[in-house]
Design a protein that fits this description.
Layout lengths: L1 E5 L5 H10 L3 E6 L3 H10 L9 E3 L2 H8 L3 E4 L6 H10 L3 E5 L6 H14 L3 E4 L6 H11 L6 E9 L4 H5 L19 H10 L4 E9 L11 E8 L4 E7 L8 E8 L2 E6 L5 E7 L6 H5 L2 E2 L9 H15 L7 H20 L3 E2 L16
Parallel strand pairs: 1-2, 1-4, 2-3, 4-5, 5-6, 7-10
Antiparallel strand pairs: 7-11, 8-9, 8-15, 9-10, 11-12, 12-13, 13-14
């Protein structure tokens, strides 16, 4: 299958690796900076591959190379327009998180996928972590019984050098803050595990140590789920001196699980009423080795997307899933900015509407 990548920044190496592992034919890559394209290709010894065309304009790339599958890994504020253009050209799309920065754009992406008959995958790759797959299996089997509460804690470090690498980071127009950029993976997991449907969100955000940003470097929120369970969210880039953890807790009447590690890649606690075959091993802990906080999930995202196209079924992680994660982050922002609880569903809100919000 012909594949193209749009955006050759920090996360692009994971996409190229996933494409190679899944034996995709890399037809083209695109970035406004030619040096980034060459650096990415050199990392995989592809710089002399004449079959891979380089473009600085993705619209020209789409016309000239006609990829069947395109991955979008640009700055977040450009995800929606690029995705819509790719779908108009008949491409299936994998969109890096967040799927968009406004509810209107997220809705447009979901609608366009249905209208054009193309597959839309939101790249929340941590859903494929071994620890998360075990946890999801327990949730779907009803092993927790009635859910009490759950929480996610993304306690990472991002210094000034990180933000200086790409001026769009931490801006309202192109990114958002610690919750939208770093914490959205964990927020996605919490919402997914707790039943997805939400009544209300209340939150506080602050900008404590990064005065050069437009958005928050720490945020805390409480979520009231429709099933009666409560959720807690903590996301920050203020942890000294380096990334500490991304930890997910789920508490139910008949079970307790703690998924930990730096990117929800370990099982630290696994307790259920009634022993099942996998429990003995998981009680002793699970440690999935990862090279970085992005984990190993991109290759699985690609493998599943290819299977979804072949089998004409939805991908495991859909555009609707990406929309839900975005909705919860935007609801947190709206609550923190207005100083009141915010009810879901959320309509007509974006990071650009945060102008004047105090952090």
């Amino acid at each position: 299958m012909r594949f193209a990548l749009i955006g050759c920044g920090r996360i692009a190496v994971n996409h190229i690796r996933a494409a190679l592992e899944n034996k995709l034919a890399i037809a083209a890559i695109c970035d406004i900076d030619p040096a980034r394209m060459e650096g990415l290709l050199q990392a995989y010894n592809l710089q002399t591959d004449a079959s891979i065309r380089r473009y600085t304009d993705y619209k020209i790339m789409l016309r000239e190379t006609a990829p069947a599958l395109t991955a979008i890994a640009t700055e977040s504020g450009k995800h929606a327009q690029i995705a819509l253009t790719c779908m108009e050209a008949g491409c299936h799309v994998i969109i890096e998180k967040p799927i968009a920065l406004s509810m209107a754009d997220a809705d447009a992406i979901v609608a366009a996928g249905k209208e054009k008959g193309v597959k839309v995958c939101a790249c929340h790759q941590n859903r494929f972590n071994q620890s998360i797959q075990h946890l999801r299996g327990a949730v779907e089997a009803g092993r927790f019984g009635k859910l009490s509460h759950g929480s996610v804690h993304v306690r990472w470090n991002r210094n000034e050098g990180y933000y200086a690498q790409a001026p769009w980071r931490g801006t309202r127009a192109q990114d958002g803050g610690a919750l939208m950029n770093q914490s959205i993976h964990g927020i996605d997991l919490l919402r997914w595990m707790m039943g997805n449907e939400i009544d209300e969100v209340f939150a506080y955000t602050r900008r404590q140590f990064h005065p050069y940003l437009e958005c928050e470097d720490v945020g805390l929120a409480v979520v009231k789920f429709k099933n009666g369970a409560i959720g807690a969210i903590e996301g920050t880039t203020n942890v000294f001196p380096e990334n500490l953890e991304e930890t997910l807790y789920i508490f139910g009447q008949n079970g307790t699980v703690k998924v930990g590690g730096k990117s929800c890649n370990t099982i630290d606690v696994w307790e259920f009423a009634g022993e099942e075959a996998e429990d003995a091993a998981l009680k002793n802990g699970l440690r999935e080795k990862t090279e970085n906080v992005y984990g190993n999930g991109h290759a699985y995202v690609y493998a599943d997307m290819l299977a979804a196209i072949k089998e004409n079924r939805p991908p495991y992680i859909t555009g609707e899933d990406g929309r839900r994660a975005l909705e919860l982050v935007l609801a947190i922002y709206k609550s923190a900015g207005e100083g009141r609880p915010v009810q879901l569903p959320l309509r007509g809100f974006s990071t650009k509407d945060m102008q004047g919000y105090g952090f």
